[in-house]
Amino acid sequence: MFWFLPYLVLRHSYALARTGERFAANDPWNGSRQTRFTIEVYKMVPKVWGLKAVADRKWLGPDFFLIRSEMDGRKHWLPESLAELWRTKRVPTAALPRLLHELEPHLRKSSYFPFLHYRRMEWFGVILGVVCLGLLILDWITVVPEDGMRTAAAVALVCALLGGGVPAVFITRGLRERTRCRAEMERILASGGADETV
User: Fold this and answer.
1) Torsion of CA 135, 169, 126, 47, to 10 degrees
2) 198 vs 184: CA distance, rounded Å
3) What digits encode the pLDDT tens for the residues 54-107?
4) How many folded domains does the chain comprise?
């Protein structure tokens, strides 16, 4: 959780953590010609670190996967749905380029961020909500009625709205993204993603 907050205020970049397997497959971005791909694993780090590569450490956060074509060197990021199916061996490695090419027109920015196994948004919303509710209580305890009741009431209203609204927004967003990701996984499997042999 502690590495999530800096992401909100710092620009980030991706640093190579390790290189995975190499495999042969048709390249749908190059006329379906046969080529070799490499799977690479990245970590998200603050841009101020200026790193192109980092040690593969769990505390750096979740893995981000891409496949790189040896034909033209282009990198193609895997959305969480496809990465999860591949990691759990529900789709073969050789099917990744084809499935990703079919998915790309329907992907959003949030498709590439991990929601299935991480509850960052929910925890951040709850923590912020607790802070706001704490400020609300502090406001009512410390206010001197004759000196600033109106100001205190306004502050209390803002804190109450934030304390209730912020967690709801973050929790709803997390749930919605997980539902979208699971639906995307079902579409991949339904399209025959698990049928291709390695």
Assistant:
1) -100
2) 22
3) 888 888 888 999 999 999 999 999 999 999 999 999 999 999 999 999 999 988
4) 1
Residue 148 lies in a domain: no
CB 15 within 8 A of CB 50: no
CA angle 69, 74, 79 (to 5 degrees): 85
Q: What share of the chain is helix, strand, coil (3-state, %, to 5)?
A: 55, 20, 25
Type of residue at 140 = W
The angle at the Cα of 114, spanning 11 to 129, to the nearest 5 degrees, equals: 75
Write the single-letter amino acid at 136: L
pLDDT at 139: 64
**138 part of a folded domain:** no
pTM: 0.73
